[in-house]
# Entry
Amino acid sequence: MLDLKAIRHDASAVVAALAKRGVTFDLARFESLDARRKAADVRAQGLLAERKSASKKIGVLVAEGRSVEEAKSEVNEILSRLAEELTSATAEADAAQADLDTLLRETPNLPDHCVPEGVSEAENKEITQWGTPRVFSFLPRDHVDLGEALGLMDLETAGRIAGSRFSLLSGDLARMHRALIQFMLDCHTQQNGYTELYVPYIVNEASLTGTGQLPKFAEDLFRLEGDQGYYLAPTAEVPITNIVRDKIFDAEALSPSGLMYVAHTPCFRSEAGSYGRDTRGLIRQHQFEKVELVQIVRAGQSEAALEALTGHAEGILQSLELPYRKVMLCGGDLGFSAALTYDLEVWLPGQSAYREISSCSNFRDFQARRLQARWRNPETGKPELVHTLNGSGLAVGRTLVALLENGQREDGGIDIPIALRGYLGGQTEINP
# Structure
C-alpha cells in the first residue's frame, strides 16, 4: 500500500510514477476522500472539545441562579445532542477512511526510478547473459515430445484426472523433479544462509491482502468452498511473508542481513487471462512446484538484498549449467506489489527462446505497510516499516523443462548435469 503522507506531499510525483506502469491514479477521488475524512475528523475533535466544556457547565449554571436539577437537565440535553453528532462524525470519518483504504489497496506500488519505460515484456531491459546456448547437430525437440517419447510424461492422463494444465510424471522424470527440489533447498540453506520453512498450503484473505494478491487479483486464485475465506496458496511468498504480519522486531533480529527464509511448496493458480498462452506442457500450469526465497530487511538494506537474492537464484542455474539471461522488467510488465523486478530467463532450445524461470522483486515497504510489519529503530525508539523481497529459487517444473531440452541427445536420451547426479544415486543419463 502506498504511503498516504507521500501522496499528500507530492501527488504529481505519484501520478507520474504510476503512469510509468500505464496506471492512471484517480487523484481527484483521492483528494476528495482525504478531504472528507479530514473534515469529519476535525468535526469530531471539535465535538469532543465541546463535550468536555459542556460537562463543566453545571457549576456555571448554578452560579447563574439555576437549580442543580435544572442545570443537570440542560447539560444532559447538550451532552445527548453532542453524542449523536459525535457518533455521526466518527462514522463519516470511518467511512471515508474505508473508501480511501479501498482505493489504496487497489493501487500498485511505485516503480523504482531505474525501471525502464515500456508497456510489455518486449521492452524489458537485458542486464546480462550467462552461458552459451548449445548448438545442436540435430533439430532439438521440446520437453513434451521428449518426455512422452521416454514414456515418462503423460499429459493426456493428467487431463482425464483433473483437466487441462496439469501433468503426470513417472519414473526418472518424477525422480529428477524431486531431486531438483532437494538440490535447491540444500544450496539455499547450506550455501546461502536461508532458514528452511514448512508452511501452510492454504491461506486466508488477510494473508493474501497483506502481500497484494487481494482484492485486485481474486480471479487468479483458487478459492475453497465454504465461508472460512480460505484459498490455495498461489506461491509460498504469501505464507512466508505473513510470518511478519503485525510484528515489531528488535534491531538485532534484522542484523546483519535480515530474515532469510526458503520453502518448497506446491503453487495453485487459475491462470485467468492466460487463455491460449503456453497451453502445451509444463510451462504454465494450474498446479506447480517452486522453491521460494523471501527476505525481510531494514529499508537501507533492500537494494543490496535484491542483488544478493537474485544472485542466489542465478547460482542454481549456473550449477545446473543452464544458459540464461537477466532482465529488468519495464513499468508495464512490473508486478502489482513490486518496485523493481529482475526476471531470470532460461534458454529453451525446443522453443528457441529465453523463458522466465524466476522473478526476483524488491517490494520496499509496500507489503509491509499492508502487513504492519515493522522493526524498532534503536536510535529513535520508534517502529519503522521493514522492506520485503522475494524470488523463485527456482520454479521446479520449468527447471525440469530446461534440463530436458538443454540436455537432450539425438537418440532421445537426456544427459543429467553433474550437480544433480548425487541426488539421483550417481545416475548420469536418462536412456530412451
Q: What stands out?
A: The chain has a mean pLDDT of 95.
